[in-house]
TrEMBL record:
SMART domains: AAA. It comes from Ammoniphilus resinae. It comes from the Bacteria. Residues 2-239 form the ABC transporter domain. The keyword DNA repair does not apply. This is Phosphonate transport system ATP-binding protein. InterPro entries: AAA+_ATPase, ABC_transporter-like_ATP-bd, ABC_transporter-like_CS, ABC_transpr_PhnC, MetN_ABC_transporter-like, P-loop_NTPase. SUPFAM superfamilies: P-loop containing nucleoside triphosphate hydrolases. Keywords: ATP-binding, Cell membrane, Membrane, Nucleotide-binding, Phosphonate transport, Translocase, Transport.
Amino acid sequence: MIKIKELTKKFGDHLVLDKVEFSIQDREFLVILGSSGAGKSTLLRCLNGLVQPTSGQITLNGMLYNKKNIREIRRKVGFIFQQYQVIGNLSVLQNVLLGRLGTKSFWNIFFTKEERVRAEEAIEMVGLVDKIYTRVDQLSGGQKQRVGIARAVLQNPQVILADEPVASLDPVTSEEILSLLKRINEENGTTIVCNLHQLDYAKKYGERIVGLRYGRIQYDGAASDLGVSDVERIYGNHLSMQPNTGKTVKPSSTIQVLTT
Ligand SMILES: Nc1ncnc2c1ncn2[C@@H]1O[C@H](COP(=O)(O)OP(=O)(O)OP(=O)(O)O)[C@@H](O)[C@H]1O
């Protein structure tokens, strides 16, 4: 379980997270929803130790995030990036094996036979067996994201943080990627925390939604309970998000979306 207490982050004078407080249960599929600049990425980066909070506290299974524990925490928390963060001139297999780097010491970066077998299994799970020796720069965006997911799976983390994993993908590929994350959540029992812009995906794939606006929590509850007034609090009461397009629309369209 991750516990977040009074998490505050300032960049200079800019308050990006303002005393954010909530817990993430084991095996949960949690969506962090909010418009651009709401603080979603900053929150996820704090949960991975990539960003140092200004104040507040995070614990993973009671273990406090601090310099001493950060390597162990990073082993338990995988990260999937919006822009994939794969190495173009390496093969799919080599990229996925990089998920084991966190367990290696500086003088021993060799991978075992067992790690290779597990990498092959992860590649099979994401549906890229036929591309296993293909250079990653020859893959489509959706395939690159699958490589990123397989790399995170090989790490065998307790939690996967996905920072807008479908922001650069078309709707069909987006659904495939989110379904894959859902499968990993259900079959492997991995907790998923996924940042999304798109309201309809949040409601379809999230069990629970935490809605952020200006770094403050506006909604924390079941995805199925998210209503029009909650959406307006998250996005502002004059504008709301339209599904998939990322365009802003008047609230009447939002009401239609929520009632279909
Ligand atoms: N390293 C940084 N230095 C200064 N300001 C930053 C830094 N990282 C983020 N910010 C600012 O913090 C605010 C929140 O950014 P963040 O990326 O967390 O929002 P977001 O909700 O993820 O937005 P998006 O959906 O556009 O990615 C933004 O105004 C951004 O400019």
